[in-house]
Write a structure and sequence with these properties.
By secondary structure, the chain is mostly helical. Helix content is 71%, strand content 0%.
């Protein structure tokens, strides 16, 4: 940030900015023209100072000015705009503008006139801290931010305390690395407000909500590793304290405050994941935990008392807490402290099951609400994008589910809890459930629908108990689906319930499976969107189940009429159902051997594409070129093109794929020129569709196309990566840039982009936490290093080091797979640039790969790593134990992957010649059977 002369707001400038804010938030018009005008000032330092001035003013500086709303509205809009500008423009605003924003906002934070202003001020403080540092505030003479929040404002009461709570929450959400282990001190400090009887109720609840929000946010972090991050260390250390507060509030009945009780129950569900961190505990405390977290929660579910407007939310929260406990018990194999919490459940099962079942039938109002939007000709509702959006949880209010989805959420929670109870103890749960199902089964559509959905829910957990009656029930369900006079709600759940027992059907006689699939297909052309979705989803499940069981051949006889139904449904499906239909068509063409049938399907989709692209173009022009209000872009074309790309994978046609690629390249270019930012789904779909067609076009055709377009597609990807804030868009851009480089190498990128992109990727991978996003970045970085190392060795080395830093060998489950994929990409780069081995942490790579499944990818990476090690003998010697671990992981499987056994033999030969004694000691420590296997497989004498 450079210093510059400070701008002083003038009355005329104030009037102009108030007009701009009026047109962008106070006025109901909120025109695109006004927003475009606002955007052009985004990186203007003087505009930033002007916004700070308006935000900090207690009253309108121009007294005689007639406002179109309250002054608080204008201040709030100025603050939100200031926050957005700080987030998007960052360092380009300059030090003076940022300091002025900090000074004004700090003043507002210390003396807020309204809760809405306090909230926005907190967000601005956090944006400035992210841009600078915690220490920056003191360096600039504005005081110690931590002391201000945790002491001065925290203890001041009323809105000042609320300001501190807002800021602390946003700091922990937005800057988890910077806050780190201090999260323990923050949580423990904040809960003192909750327990202090002298604290005002609104602040007590706000303090509790803040802690809840932080623990809820932490669920999104990658916990799939044995080593915790500093923030996770702090949260686990404070978990016992917060869990104790939850128990204390439950004991007090939350003072009769039902919204607070709901929040506490939701907090308990989250804190169960921390159970191992705050147990063991004294017997008296564990007894309290069992009593208030489980026994009293079952009482809440079973209670017939209606607590008023929050009744549905309270029941839902209680059910979700029980479900969380049951699932944790199952995940832990019934071991650990969670086993104690399960003690009350078997004794309370009869009342609990009956209460849960009571929540399953839908009301007439619910059914009518669904029917009102169920016709296949009605498009799904689309969300409205707002330019000025705070998008943070408000700790000052009670916010729960919308009223119109409360009952549906309660039903879903009840069914999840029933499913978990069946897994927990099917023998004890089944008798109570089957009695309820028998009672519900009848002619009444509400009760019949409920009984069928209950059967589908228990089909897996209670399979042993229902096994003998399954054939008869299936016949009844098939008849229900096939009956044209049956209610759509009953039909849709009958289809779903049948999809739950497909594994059983695949191992039974072929007629059962054929009849089930035929029933599904018969309902694909229903005029009900609900039935369409159920039928196509069930058919997709059938293909996935068949694939997993190696039994897709059992579906072959259904292919002719299934393909005809897909073709018939194609013109009338839209939105989510169309996407499901495309999935189904892709499943079918992947395994079908009848080329005439696959050709007909392909031709139908290509024909339908002509209409769908017209819908897209018309809606895009209406919204983004003509500015027609209340319109949205028709995105069905993306589902169609996903199928077309899949079809071209099996039946390549570079002319067709290149033509479609050109269409989306042009659309993406237009979106960039119009600076379309708010519809991230549109941008991601465009880029990922380009990726799909890159993958099905010949290298020669792609290379020529890239030459003709002068690498424009790569330039667009780079532009979206570095200029748009949304991580989803950045990830799509990274995927696009990787595909381009993978398929046509350096010719895909225009001159000058390589160096800039490496620098941007280095910065990006250090800033993100999501492991999937890291994997995408590692793949692009490693490929770029292979391509560009000779041109930019220094920059490439730094980028490679950043990619290596992303590795973790202490991961397990899903994350272990992600980190193994990163390791494989790094190994391939080492094979191409062996000189990078010294900074690649080969010991860590070896440990990661040793834990991975033996696959072709692992084979290729093993060969690459050992090639690099054999060219750097000192490093190979230094990490001998880790390399041996990798070798042992292969056992005899290396023989099944060409070149792997030979490369491992070369590695062992090196160790035998250089470190013979150490190798013999290592081998002698093995189990005799494993040692003999290694010796014989790799011909070690």
């Amino acid at each position: 940030m450079n210093s510059e002369e400070i701008y002083r707001p003038t009355p005329n400038d104030v009037v102009n900015v108030l007009r701009l804010l009026h047109d962008n938030g106070v006025s109901v018009q909120n025109s695109k023209k006004a927003y475009a005008e606002l955007q052009q000032y985004q990186a203007n330092p003087s505009f930033c100072i002007l916004l700070s001035y308006v935000f900090g003013a207690e009253a309108c500086p121009i007294q005689e000015l007639q406002l179109g709303g309250s002054w608080i509205q204008y201040r709030r809009l100025a603050g939100i705009t200031l926050k957005n500008n700080l987030e998007k423009s960052q360092y380009s605003l300059g030090l003076v503008a940022v300091k002025e924003a900090a000074r004004c906002t700090l003043s507002v934070l210390g003396n807020p006139s309204d809760v809405r202003i306090a909230r926005v001020a907190a967000q601005i403080i956090v944006k400035i801290t992210a841009l600078t540092s915690f220490g920056w505030w003191q360096e600039c003479g504005m005081g110690n931010l931590s002391h201000l929040l945790l002491n001065e404002l925290f203890e001041a009461g009323d809105l000042r305390t609320l300001s501190a709570l807002y800021t602390l929450q946003y700091l922990m959400e937005d800057l988890p690395k910077e806050v780190g282990a201090a999260s323990k001190d923050i949580i423990e400090r904040v809960v003192t407000l909750v327990l202090d009887q002298n604290t005002k109720t609104n602040l007590q609840k706000a303090a509790f909500r803040m802690c809840f929000n932080i623990y809820e946010q932490a669920e999104q972090l990658d916990w799939n590793v044995e080593g915790l991050s500093p923030l996770q260390t702090g949260l686990t250390a404070a978990s016992g304290t917060f869990a104790g507060v939850c128990t204390a509030l439950l004991e007090q009945g939350c003072g009769g405050d039902i919204p607070l009780l709901i929040q506490v129950l939701r907090s308990c569900a989250i804190m169960l994941e921390y159970l191992d961190y705050f147990t063991p505990m004294p017997d008296a405390e564990m007894t309290k935990l069992i009593d208030w977290w489980i026994r009293r929660t079952i009482d809440l579910v079973s209670s017939r008392v209606d607590v008023g407007e929050y009744n549905l939310q309270l029941k839902t929260a209680a059910m979700d807490l029980l479900t969380a406990a049951l699932k944790l018990y199952d995940r832990m194999g019934g071991n650990g402290p969670i086993s104690f919490l399960m003690e009350p459940i078997p004794l309370m099962l009869p009342d609990l099951v009956q209460a849960l079942v009571t929540c399953v039938p839908m009301s007439i109002e619910e059914m009518n609400g669904i029917l009102a939007n169920d016709d296949y000709r009605l498009r799904d509702a689309t969300a409205v994008n707002y330019h000025l959006n705070e998008a943070s949880k408000d700790i000052s209010e009670d916010t729960f589910m919308d009223d119109d989805c409360g009952a549906a959420t309660l039903r879903a929670s009840a069914l999840r809890c029933i499913d978990a109870l069946c897994v927990f103890s099917s023998k004890e749960t089944f008798p109570h459930l089957i009695e309820q199902i028998k009672i519900l089964w009848g002619a009444d559509r509400q009760l019949k629908e409920a009984s069928i959905v209950l059967f589908g829910t228990i089909a897996n957990g209670c399979y042993t108990e229902i096994e003998l009656t399954v054939p008869d029930i299936i016949r009844q369900l098939i008849d229900t689906v096939m009956s044209l006079s049956e209610d759509i709600f009953v039909v849709s759940v009958a289809i779903w319930s049948l999809s739950r027992i497909l594994e059983w059907a695949f191992i039974c006689d072929e007629k059962i499976l054929s009849d089930i699939v035929a029933a599904f297909v018969s309902r694909m052309q229903s005029t009900s969107k609900r039935v369409q979705q159920a039928a196509v989803s069930a058919l997709n499940t059938a293909f996935v189940t068949g694939h997993n069981m190696g039994a897709t051949a059992r579906l072959v006889e259904t292919f002719p009429y299934l393909s005809e139904s897909i073709i018939a449904c194609l013109p009338i499906y839209c939105d989510g159902n169309l996407s499901l239909l495309c999935d189904l068509a892709l499943h079918l063409i992947a395994v079908a051997e009848d080329l005439n049938m696959t050709s007909r399907i392909g031709a139908a989709f290509k024909s339908n594409r002509i209409e769908r692209i017209k819908y897209f173009e018309t809606s895009y022009v209406a919204l983004y070129i003509n500015g027609v209000p209340n319109t949205h872009v028709d995105k069905d074309i993306f589902s169609i093109d996903r199928f077309v790309a899949g079809f071209l994978t099996r039946f390549p046609d570079s002319e067709t794929s290149l033509k479609i690629l050109g269409v989306w390249h042009a659309a993406l270019k237009d979106a960039a020129e119009r600076d379309i930012r708010e519809d991230e789904d549109l941008l991601c779909n465009m880029m990922l569709t380009c990726c799909n067609f890159l993958g099905v076009t010949s290298t020669a055709a792609l290379t020529e196309w890239s030459r003709q377009t002068q690498g424009s597609l790569a330039s667009l990807g780079f532009q979206f990566l570095v200029t748009l804030p949304k991580q989803t868009v950045k990830s799509a851009a990274v995927t696009l840039l990787h595909r381009l480089l993978k398929f046509i190498e350096k010719s895909a990128y225009p001159n000058g982009i390589g160096e800039k992109l490496l620098v941007a990727l280095t910065s990006s991978i250090r800033a993100i936490d999501d492991s999937y996003d890291k994997l995408d970045l590692v793949r692009l970085i490693t490929l770029m290093v292979e391509m560009y190392f000779s041109e930019f060795p220094q920059i490439a080395s730094v980028a490679f080091a950043a990619a290596v830093d992303a590795l973790r060998s202490d991961a397990y489950n899903d994350s272990r797979w992600l980190f193994s994929q990163m390791a494989y990409d790094i190994c391939h780069t080492l094979d191409a640039v062996p000189g990078l081995l010294v900074q690649s942490r080969p010991d860590e790579i070896s440990r990661i790969m040793a834990q991975a499944e033996n696959t072709c990818d692992k084979s290729s990476a093993t060969i690459s790593l050992m090639n690099a090690l054999l060219s750097a003998e000192d490093i190979a010697s230094a990490i001998f134990p880790d390399v041996m671990r990798l070798i042992y992981s292969w056992q005899q499987a290396a023989c099944n992957f060409p070149g792997t056994r030979e490369k491992i033999s070369s590695m062992l030969l090196f160790y035998s010649s250089k470190h013979g004694e150490q190798l013999r000691e290592h081998l002698s420590a093995l189990h005799p059977n494993l040692r003999e296997m290694i010796l014989s497989t790799y011909s070690i004498s």
